[in-house]
Write a structure and sequence with these properties.
By secondary structure, this protein is of the alpha+beta class. The chain has eight helices and four strands, in the order E-H-H-E-H-H-H-E-E-H-H-H. About 55% of the residues lie in helices and about 10% in strands. The protein is elongated, with a radius of gyration of 23 Å.
Length: about 180
């Protein structure tokens, strides 16, 4: 029998129309304010609250439909090491010193190779990391880009073992000790 490794994967969601978030936050805040007001004693529904709830739901649906989900896969260690060697840290750059790589070039190179699948609204999207990643990444905010960086670091440098919930383990331990009393 031979052993085969399936490298770890993570999905990073990117809302392509992040301006919808501001609309959603405003509608959600208006709805929350409306719900804080004292009821007027009528038994009928609140038409304004119903309309705002529908607006919030519509915005959530629009954001979900406009969200791309990128499946990022960890690289084999020899490829990771080759990328590290190809992108040495710049002198006098604090981020480069911290990560021991050229942060301005490394992550784009790794991410272009690490994205193995993209889907939007349940449909597969044609995505060629070598040609499609940089233009997309250049349009992202630092926060959006950071989510991809975090994913690739977690997959390649972090713990990739079986997920373990300390809370679930604690509850299981409590349950077994209670039943043994």
């Amino acid at each position: 029998m031979s052993l085969t490794i399936k490298r770890p994967e993570k999905v990073v969601s990117l809302c392509l129309d992040a301006s919808l978030r501001a609309e959603w936050e405003a509608a959600t805040a208006r709805l929350a304010d409306l719900m804080k007001r004292p009821a007027d004693g009528r038994m009928t529904g609140n038409a304004e609250a119903t309309a705002l709830a529908a607006e919030v739901g519509d915005l959530e649906e629009r954001m979900a439909a406009d969200t791309a989900r990128f499946r990022v896969r960890g690289l084999p260690r020899n490829k990771w090491a080759a990328h590290v060697a190809a992108h040495p840290p710049r002198k006098d750059d604090a981020a480069d010193a911290q990560y021991q790589i050229n942060t301005a070039t490394f992550f784009d190179a790794v991410l272009a190779e690490s994205i193995v699948d993209v889907e939007q609204a349940g449909e597969s999207v044609t995505f060629d990391g070598a040609k499609d990643w940089l233009p997309l990444a250049d349009d992202m905010t630092n926060g959006q880009y950071g989510e991809f960086v975090d994913a690739v670091l977690e997959l390649n440098k972090g713990a990739a073992g079986i997920p373990f919930s300390r809370a679930a383990a604690s509850l299981r331990s409590l349950a077994s000790s209670a039943s043994s009393d």
